[in-house]
Design brief:
Elements: H1 12-23, E1 26-28, E2 40-42, H2 44-63, E3 68-70, H3 79-85, H4 87-90, E4 92-97, E5 104-106, E6 126-129, E7 133-135, E8 145-147, H5 153-158, H6 160-167, E9 173-182, E10 197-207, H7 212-229, E11 237-241, E12 254-261, E13 264-275, H8 277-286, E14 292-294, E15 299-301, E16 304-311, H9 312-323, E17 324-329, E18 332-337, E19 348-352, H10 359-370, E20 376-378, H11 384-393, E21 398-402, H12 404-409, E22 411-416, E23 422-426, H13 430-438
Parallel strand pairs: 3-9, 19-20, 19-21
Antiparallel strand pairs: 1-2, 4-5, 4-6, 7-8, 9-10, 10-16, 11-12, 12-13, 13-16, 14-15, 17-18, 21-22, 22-23
Helix pairs in contact: 2-9, 3-8
Bound molecules: adenosine-5'-triphosphate.
């Protein structure tokens, strides 16, 4: 915590969860029916922020590069994908039951005793497949079984040739995707940290095999930079290299980007050198040659893959936790989210000083001037001080106040969330000023 007398981190989680609910970032799903098994709905603010998290990722991983292209693959697809990838056989967690209180746990996440009742009378672990099963078509039979994808990555591997042929890219190049994934987690927990339905942001970066280590290190640096650049403080972010006995069967090296959550260090993103495992596996199953032919050298090879795999929903939660602060302004305590303006649900709030007949139409003109540039809130209720606090609490970086002087001098006050400094800006130049601040 950064603010004077800031909230201790043990109740930080509770405060952020409450704020999310109270202000419309994240609601428990189907709340009017008592909720549904750790699923969540993103409200007006959360939907904006989640889009911004995904947008910031897409911008850095796709838009600002000429060696990465994006795709958007189907969530339901051939079960043969999951045979080839090993998910049908291996995508399991070890499940144990407590014989005393009948709670279920992931054996690898608990010690010798039940975290609920403390009993050590646990069943032997058994493998539980995390994929959600369904049927494609009206008949529920083995031939129509399909799975909701448990990761977005396989969409990139099965489209490798399509992308290669249509884009004329050549290694090193990448295919990126953002979208929903589903895992039937045994113990969803910690708010949106671990849920059964979540969003991922994944890149598969295909390289000549002898360059794999170099690109692995490159992506470790790049991804750490991305989190820091969007406001995760240095002391809450670290890279943890997996021990050799921790590595997945396909990996020649994995490191996790970890964030200091209120319960300790935990994963935001896994970055792995997946070797040529996936392209070979799909090549063998499908009979297609998933390889690259280098016309210049006459060489044919299966590229290695470096995969930075991040969670959008989990990352959004980390940004919220890192941004939460309580400080004092003019002798009054406030809650403030120091969100980077690129992530905040609204960049600007337009606030007429009062509901006065002359101020509201002018404020609407100001609003319409800014709406093409960024997300704007518009709020006329309550005192201006209360409205500033409400905007601070949801992380709006700039408030634009239209007051009685505005009718005379055709200028407005722009207030900064973090410093609370106010400057007077002519309405005619307001769009340029906001554009400058948005960078
Ligand atoms: P864990 O060990 O925590 O189950 P994982 O190592 O299996 O996660 P990956 O398969 O590497 O996770 O997935 C990449 C990223 O997707 C994770 O770093 C995380 O941000 C996100 N993610 C994975 N599972 C979930 C989930 N159940 N809920 C929310 N995000 C998830």
């Amino acid at each position: 915590m950064t603010g004077e007398g800031g909230a201790p981190s043990d109740d930080l989680m509770e405060k952020v969860v409450n704020l999310c609910k109270r202000r419309g970032f994240i609601f428990p799903s189907a709340e009017i029916y008592g909720g549904f098994r750790s699923t969540y709905d993103y409200g007006p603010l959360g939907a904006n922020m989640l889009r911004n998290v995904k947008g910031a990722w897409w911008r850095s991983m796709v838009q600002e590069r000429d060696d990465v292209v994006g795709i958007d693959a189907a969530i339901l697809s051939s079960p043969r994908i999951w045979e080839a990838s090993g998910h049908l056989a291996n995508f399991t967690d070890p499940l144990v039951d407590c014989r005393n209180c009948h709670e279920r746990w992931r054996a690898d996440k608990i010690g010798e005793s039940c975290p609920n009742c403390g009993s050590t009378d646990l069943t032997e672990p058994r493998a539980f497949n995390l994929m959600f099963k369904t049927y494609a078509g009206p008949v529920e039979e083995e031939a129509t079984v399909a799975y909701l994808r448990p990761e977005t990555a396989q969409g990139m591997f099965v489209n490798f040739l399509n992308v290669l042929q249509t884009t004329r890219k050549h290694p090193p190049f990448g295919i990126a995707q953002v979208g929903k994934s589903f895992r039937n987690e045994i113990t969803p927990q910690n708010f949106v940290f671990r849920t059964r339905e979540f969003e991922q942001m994944e890149l598969e970066y295909f390289v000549p095999p002898d360059q794999a280590q170099k690109w692995f290190e490159y992506w470790l640096d790049e991804r750490m930079r991305w989190y820091r650049n969007l406001g995760i403080p240095e002391d809450k972010l670290r890279l943890r290299h997996h021990e050799p006995d921790e590595l997945s069967h396909y990996s020649a090296g994995t490191a996790d980007v970890e964030f200091l959550f209120p319960w300790g260090w935990d994963e935001l993103e896994g970055i792995a050198n997946r070797t040529d495992y996936d392209l070979n596996a799909h090549g063998a199953r499908s009979g297609e040659k998933l390889e690259y032919f280098d016309q210049a050298s006459g060489e044919r090879y299966v590229p290695y893959v470096i995969e930075p795999a991040a969670g959008a929903t989990r990352t959004m939660m980390a940004f919220l936790l890192a941004a939460y602060d309580e400080d004092e302004v003019g002798g009054e305590r406030r809650t403030v989210l120091h969100l980077d303006h690129r992530l905040a649900p609204y960049q600007v709030a337009v606030l007429p000083l009062s509901k006065n007949d002359a101020l509201v139409p002018l404020s609407r003109t100001v609003l319409q001037k800014l709406q093409p540039l960024c997300m704007c809130d518009f709020d006329v209720t309550q005192s201006i001080g209360r409205r500033y606090r409400r905007q601070d609490e949801i992380g709006t970086p700039w408030c634009v106040t239209v007051d009685f002087d505005s009718l005379e001098d055709e200028a407005v006050t722009v207030r900064d969330r973090d410093t609370t400094e106010q400057v007077r800006v002519p309405i005619a130049g307001l769009d340029d000023e906001v554009r400058r601040r948005l960078g």
